């Protein structure tokens, strides 16, 4: 059984994706030790997972709400979006799947000309629809009300009709072994079809994805050609080197004067 405070902490984590010890201690006017005890008990029940300074929603079977995900690492996602857009030339064809980071990519692509964008992401369609230089093709299927994703076998069959220049994919989590993970097996089937039918696959994911897990496997990092993130752990860097995946890290150090770090494999 959860205490009232623990239940409220869990609800906060569901809305925001993560909670911080210091913030919770101030919110509930209790000691940080008390909050740590609450978080430990929630983690013992696998409802949350501890990170430095707080906790994140556990991998379980439930994702954070879409609007909340938009707010998590929003600046990092915008930078990732710009870096991905720099990899895609004008007059290219591309897939864009569901996700807040891929939505950020779509916004960064709005100045491109002659694009053909095939997507199962209603939010991408909404962002790009006013731009006549971008031809939009939307998959058919079941609309997932939680985030506007179009999923199901009809969407998979639709994607398989195309062979495009680029695929921009997002994921819910990245395991330490390089596994790419999601929560909905229906969306996973769409993502797998996208990966199989693109000449160059770009994974776009911020570093919070390394702190989370999810129950359904999309594939592995070695199946993508480019990986754009704000900052990658050493183990992920090694996987990229071993698999010849181009790693682009947008979190520049002060000495790099805000120039994105590009680590080419090999």
UniProtKB/TrEMBL annotation:
* UniProt keyword list: Repressor, Transcription, Transcription regulation
Q: Does the keyword Ribosomal protein apply?
A: no
Signal peptide positions are none
Q: Name one GO molecular function term.
A: DNA-binding transcription factor activity
**Domain HTH deoR-type intervals:** 2-57
Q: Which SMART domains match?
A: DeoRC, HTH_DEOR
The entry's protein name is: DeoR family glycerol-3-phosphate regulon repressor
